[in-house]
Amino acid sequence: MYFSFTAISQQTSVTAPKYKIDTVSKKITYTEVIDQAGTKDTLYNRAIHWCGIYFKNLNNVTVMDKPSGKVSGHYSFKVFDKPGKDSIKVPVATVNFNFSIDIKDNKYRYKITDFSKSSTPAFPIEHWIDKTDAAYNPAWDYYFAQVEKYMQGFIKSMKKGMKEAVKANDNW
């Protein structure tokens, strides 16, 4: 199931990206199986190496299980309100998510889900999709666009990290 929204605010329009909603969990989910040459151990080591580069703190990686080929954890990032006339970016929310990388010989699968806005209790961002909600705010479409942009960068970085490093020619 895919949703697309358009918001008009401050005389500009934002087309929110199409989010993938898992049919079972009803949650925003990014998942893909990638064919990648390498043994399970090699791909696992690449995943751990990527985590060490991407995350400022490896405490975000909560599971590192080499025998099962599983790496998982949680992370967060900020979304901002539209900059005003002074071009100052004001953070409006911190979005949390869970990720996992399941690894086998010559392939891996990533899954990114459980998105929520930091609050007590946690506020699932899927709630923002419901335009019939009395609390609906058209700015949420702008926030969704930032989530999509962040996730595309996250996935691109992970895929790059899972590829075999190109070795420099040491023949001089």
Structure summary:
The protein has 2 helices and 10 strands.
Biggest β-sheet strands, sense, barrel: 6 strands, antiparallel
Overall residue-averaged pLDDT value: 84
Number of individual domains: 1
- Stretches where pLDDT is under 50 for at least 5 consecutive residues are 1-17
Q: What is the element string, with H for helices and E for strands?
A: EEEEEHEEEEEH
Specify the CATH architecture: 2-Layer Sandwich
Q: Which value, in Å, is the CA radius of gyration?
A: 19 Å
CATH topology group = Alpha-D-Glucose-1,6-Bisphosphate, Chain A, domain 4
Coarse morphology: globular
Structural account:
The protein is of the alpha+beta class and 172 residues long. The protein has one domain (2-162): Alpha-D-Glucose-1,6-Bisphosphate, Chain A, domain 4 (2-Layer Sandwich). The protein is 23% helix and 35% strand. It is built from 2 helices and 10 strands; from the N terminus they run βββββαβββββα. Strands 5, 6, 7, 8, 9 and 10 form a 6-stranded antiparallel sheet that branches. The protein has a two-stranded antiparallel sheet with strand order 1-4. Helix 1 (40-54) crosses helix 2 (139-162). The termini are far apart. 19% of the residues are buried. Residues 1-17 have low confidence and may be disordered.
Present the secondary structure layout.
Blueprint: E1 2-3, E2 6-9, E3 12-15, E4 19-20, E5 30-35, H1 40-54, E6 61-65, E7 70-80, E8 91-104, E9 107-117, E10 123-124, H2 139-162
Antiparallel strand pairs: 1-4, 2-3, 5-9, 6-7, 7-8, 8-9, 9-10
Helix pairs in contact: 1-2
